[in-house]
Amino acid sequence: MCSFVTSLAEDLFLAGDLDCCTIVGGPTIKISRVADLGSFFDEISALEWNAETNFGDNVEQARAVIFSPIDGNAVGAIVNGTTIAKA
Length: 87
What we know:
The protein is an alpha+beta fold.
């Protein structure tokens, strides 16, 4: 899951389409430089698997991409309740 998140974040950053990143329960990280993206990757690297996470109201933000386990071993990228990609 983490490699999918970091790969998509990097692609969005290089395309100029990434403003900030948030891990549910953590602070929002403004992404304007490569060093900011690196800070987000550091946060990702410290995550522990928890399939029972309650996302709460934080996921209702516009332009939010939610990464969630789906179909057993797959990971889905979800925007506004629609799965837009999976790996």
